[in-house]
Amino acid sequence: MHYDNIIGGDAAPGDGSVENINPSDTRDVIGTFARARPEDVDSAVAAARAALPRWCASLPGERHDILRRASDEVLARKDELGRALAREEGKTLAEGVGEAVRAGQVLAFFAGEALRQAGELVPSVRPGVEVAVTREPVGVVGIVTPWNFPIAIPAWKIAPALAWGNAVVFKPAELAPHSAWLLVEILNRAGLPDGVLNLVMGQGRQVGQAMVNHPGIEAISFTGSVATGRGIAAGCVAATPMKKVQLEMGGKNPFVVLDDADLDTAVEAAVHGAFFSTGQRCTASSRLIVTEGIHDRFVAAMRDRIAAMRIGNALDPETQIGPVVDERQLATDEEYLAIGRGEGATLAHGGRRLERDAPGFYLEPALFTEVRNDMRIAREEIFGPVAAVIRVRNYEEALDVANDTEFGLSAGIATTSLKHATHFRRHAQAGMVMVNLPTAGVDYHVPFGGRKASSYGPREQGVLAREFYTIVKTAYVAS
Ligand code: UN1
User: Fold this and answer.
1) Which atom from ligand 1 is nearest to the alpha carbon of 281?
2) Which one, of 313, 326, 270, lies nearest residue 294 by Cα?
3) Deepest of 59, 76, 99, 191, by most Cβ within 10 A of its Cβ?
4) Is 56 known to be catalytic?
5) Contact criterion met (CB below 8 Å) for 289 and 387
């Protein structure tokens, strides 16, 4: 089956197409997906601009109803959407269905937000004057999303954009456009006026760049790598007019395990955080920072736990870890396995390529031990099923090591000490802190985002999402 771009409510072919391949079985072609040209970005922006006045002026009830209908459909079709997602991205069926449900919940949350658009009436410091502080849509928003959460991340960017009256030009990742296409189709069918939401598919370098440069787009929200994010931010500032920008980028998330931790809790959280979704999450626990009293027991339990995991075809309900997303990511993972060995870390478990019935990108989850925090495997985001255990003496050293990173997305700790849990919650330099929980796997109704190189601009999700998707107007009225 072939999938076109969707511009102004119509199918738009673009120039040529790309095959979308199932990473669990590379013989399985999901479909061909159109590749947008810069002129298609122009058409998408023109369609969005034409649709904007009507959508900006739409009533909260209309926006609510459309988002609510889309949520209902996503939730009703969760199994089918979850399967489509698992097939193109390689996360397991359970993870795929879970992500589809999350997208449905996000849509419902922002349907509610569409109804909660209050401003403030403030007494002026001058007599006879009233001040009204209200929020208005930003305009046309460009949304650029990664392959690793191909329906949830689009939903948590598109839903608030629409709830607050913006029109959207949306570019999903080239590796996983099917889930995105299905989401756009559902939202359009839920009653969005033509042109409010436009889908342009293709490469970041062409389509994304054209969006960043385009004078008809007021803001860009992006999730992806630090290098690309930096380029987008620079482009948004250099553009005329300058664009508002929101970036969610990498992580090198620490998960601290203290001597007093409950071992099962620590191992479950570490395995989940490091290896579920094949480690392909910006919130993955890639540094396991373990105090020496529990170190050997923790490593032994991790090895047993990892050895028992079933790695295989994402569409097999028995599978617990799916394949890596593609050949290139697999090569990166293998390169880091070699780098880690070269740096003197011990590969305590895994790291082999696996053969399965179907040809796919299967990699055994890998656990390095004897890692120092200055090694590249402890500093650079790998984005694969590779975790590094760093041995430390005590809590104080653990906290120092946890914070000694250019990133600051999520930080976790396993401990039964209230004192250490509280101290860590206050002093971890991260946007999100998890106590006795995996660093990955977040709620859909509260803010998401990080510090340092992990994020730039306002938070995503929850009520704070409005900071990016609205601009404030302060009106002074003399009576
Ligand atoms: C999660 O861990 O539940 O790209 C979400 C990512 C993040 C989303 C993680 N933006 O991995």
Assistant:
1) 11
2) 270
3) 99
4) no
5) no
Cβ–ligand 1 distance for 441 under 6 Å, the answer yes
- The secondary structure element, H or E, covering residue 398 is helix 395-403
Cα 202 to ligand 1 centroid, rounded to whole Å:
22
Angstrom distances, CA of residue 479 to CA of 118, 127, 130, 267, 307: 22, 9, 8, 65, 74
448 Cα distance to chain centroid: 9
**Active-site annotation holds for 248:** yes
**The tokens of 2 are what?**
């072939």
* Model confidence, pTM: 0.98
Q: Where are the beta strands (DSSP E) in 219-306?
A: 219-223, 244-248, 253-257, 285-291
Going along the chain from its start, the domains and CATH numbers come out as 2-249+454-478 (3.40.605.10), 254-435 (3.40.309.10)
pLDDT in tens, 147-187: 999 999 999 999 999 999 999 999 999 999 999 999 999 99
Asked whether residue 479 carries a pLDDT value surpassing 90, the answer given is no
Tens-digit pLDDT profile for residues 365-408: 999 999 999 999 999 999 999 999 999 999 999 999 999 999 99
* Residue of 10, 11, 28 whose CA lies nearest to 19: 28
